[in-house]
Amino acid sequence: MSPEFLIAYISMGSVFVPLCLALAHKKRIPDELIPIYWILIVSLACDVISISLLKYAISINTLLIGNIYLFAQFSLLVWIFVKQLQSKKVISIVYIFFIFFYVINISFFQGPWVFNSVSNVLASLILIALCLYYFYRLLNDLPIMHIHSLPMLWISFAVLMYYAGNFFLFLVSNYLVEGARESHRIIWILHNLLNIIKNILFAIALWQSYRK
């Protein structure tokens, strides 16, 4: 088995760690963590479909699945921040702008069968900004003494690490496909490693909620 497939399988399997925690106390999961449950479900479904198509189909394009996953995960993460931050109207306006941009880009510019790098970059910038704003509000308000017990802290760490770490990848992915396929494979291994870390941090967030 090639290294990229091995890490891809580990990345796909890592979703079971937070998903099992979410299922263990699904009936008692707080409203603000419900989007995490759906992110994990969508992530697992997209990974299974993509890997199955790549392994058993010939010359199949799975980039449409990735583009759909971008929209689903971005929407659910914005939902989380809307529940946590006070600037709900501003965040809603930014989200509507992103939807408009995403639809225009996937319909008329990059298309559904090409990795929508521009939309991913825009989503990354928005989510990075939301994470930094949340950290600012957290340090300014200090709602509790032991902030490490806040599930939202770990969710913000997960989102910031994933999107900040993948920002460069999203920016140059399509260029690497054309001119440096080996570099493209290596950089997507990095993406899967960051996805594993993201799922571990989601698991910590759910565990902190479970402890409460």
Concise overview:
With 212 residues, the chain is an all-alpha fold. The chain has helices spanning 3-14, 16-24, 34-56, 63-84, 88-109, 117-141, 151-179, 181-211.
Order of helices and strands: HHHHHHHH
Strand element count = 0
The best one-word shape is globular
Give Rg in angstroms: 17 Å
Distance between the termini: 42 Å
Structural class: mainly alpha
Strand content: under 5%
Low-confidence stretches: none
Mean pLDDT, rounded to whole units? 86
DSSP helical segment count = 8
Helix proportion: over 70%
Q: Which properties best describe this structure?
A:
212 residues
Description:
With 212 residues, the protein is mainly α. 82% of the residues lie in helices and 0% in strands. It is built from eight helices and no strands. The chain has helices spanning 3-14, 16-24, 34-56, 63-84, 88-109, 117-141, 151-179, 181-211. The longest helix has 31 residues, at 181-211. The N and C termini lie far apart (42 Å).
